[in-house]
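Hey, can you fold this one?
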Amino acid sequence: MISCRDIAKLSSQYLDQDLPLMTRMRIKIHLMMCVHCHRFMKQLQATINAVKHLKEPEITHPDIDNQVANLLQQHRQNQK
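Sure. Predicted structure:
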């Protein structure tokens, strides 16, 4: 029988469908019987789905140049 600890360790691989068939079946049976692991897996899936929809902030070249210039200026002031 697969344990709750095993579920936590294998959860990402399970959601990625990157486990052998027998292991996936054991996990599925455990999830049907254990409300805590079932809830954990649902929350993990919801988190993964939410992160997939996040957009990376756009940083333009002038922004990067300004940030580097500010960091250099701060570094020089801290050395004095």
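The two ends are 65 Å apart (CA to CA). Let me know if you want another pass with a different chain boundary.
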